[in-house]
Automatic annotation (TrEMBL):
PANTHER family, alphabetized: PROTEASE PRSW
Membrane topology: Multi-pass membrane protein
CC terms in the record's Gene Ontology section: plasma membrane
InterPro entries recorded: Peptidase_PrsW_arch/bac, PrsW
Protein name: Protease PrsW
Enzyme superclass (EC): hydrolase
Length: 229
C-alpha cells in the first residue's frame, strides 16, 4: 500500500518541483503553491462523478465527444475556473511566470489524486506509464494555461482573448491526447510519443518566454530603484 501511494504521489511532486525551480526570480510562497495543489486534487471528486454519470446514462460516449468535451473541456474548464477565481487577482500573482507555477500546481494536484486512485484500483505496475503520459501531460496543460493567464494579466494586450486561450488551448490539447488513446487501437505509441515531445517543446518554450519577461520586469524595477539610465 505504501509503495502504491508513493508511486502515485511522487511524479506529481517531482514535476511540480521541476517547474517551481524554473522560477528564477522571486519564487512563489510554498504555502500558496501547496494550497493550489490541494485545491486541484479536490476537483477530481466532482469531475469523476460527472464523468461516471455520463457513462451510466450513455451520453456522449463517442471517442470524439468523450475526448474533447467530456474529458478535455470539462477537466480543463474546472481548473481554469479555479485559477480565474482564486489565483488571477491574488496579490501573490504578480509576475508572468507565477501563472505557470499556479497553473501547474492546480493541474498536478488534479493529476496526482487521479493517478493515486488509478494505481490503487489497478496496481503499481502501471506507475511508470502513468507518470510518463497522463501525469506529465496534465502538468504541461497547466504550463500552457498559466502562461496565457500571465499574458492576460501582465501584457495588457487583448486580456479577455488571452483568458479564453488559457482555456481553449489546453482543452484542445487535452482532448487530442485522449482522442489518440481512444481512436488509435494499435501502435498508439508511434502517435503518442511525437505528440508528447511536441507538448513538452511547446510548454518549455512558454517557460522560457515567461522567464524572459520576468527578467525584463525585474531589470526595469532595479533601474528605477537605483536611478540607472
Amino acid at each position: 500500500m505504501i509503495s502504491v501511494i508513493s508511486a502515485g504521489i511522487a511524479p506529481g511532486v517531482a514535476l511540480l518541483a521541476f517547474f517551481y525551480l524554473k522560477d528564477r526570480v522571486n519564487s512563489e510562497p510554498l504555502s500558496m503553491v501547496f494550497r493550489s495543489f490541494i485545491t486541484g486534487g479536490l476537483l477530481v471528486i466532482p469531475i469523476m462523478f460527472l464523468e461516471y454519470t455520463f457513462v451510466i446514462e450513455g451520453v456522449g460516449q463517442s471517442p470524439f465527444v468523450k475526448s474533447f468535451l467530456l474529458t478535455g473541456l470539462m477537466e480543463e474548464f474546472v481548473k481554469w475556473f479555479i485559477f480565474l477565481y482564486t489565483i488571477y487577482k491574488h496579490v501573490f500573482f504578480d509576475e508572468h511566470y507565477d501563472g505557470i507555477v499556479y497553473g501547474v500546481s492546480i493541474s498536478l494536484g488534479f493529476a496526482t489524486v487521479e493517478n493515486l486512485l488509478y494505481l490503487l484500483a489497478n496496481g503499481i505496475e502501471y506507475a511508470f506509464g502513468r507518470a510518463l503520459f497522463p501525469v506529465s501531460s496534465h502538468a504541461l496543460f497547466g504550463v500552457i494555461m498559466g502562461f496565457y493567464f500571465g499574458k492576460s494579466k501582465f501584457k495588457r494586450k487583448h486580456p479577455k482573448q488571452m483568458i479564453a486561450i488559457a482555456l481553449i488551448l489546453p482543452a484542445v490539447l487535452h482532448g487530442l491526447y485522449d482522442f489518440i488513446l481512444s481512436a488509435v487501437q494499435s501502435n498508439w505509441l508511434y502517435v503518442m510519443v511525437p505528440f508528447m515531445i511536441m507538448l513538452w517543446a511547446l510548454a518549455l518554450r512558454k517557460v522560457k518566454l515567461a522567464n524572459q519577461e520576468k527578467k525584463v520586469v525585474h531589470l526595469d524595477r532595479r533601474n528605477k530603484w537605483t536611478g540607472t539610465i
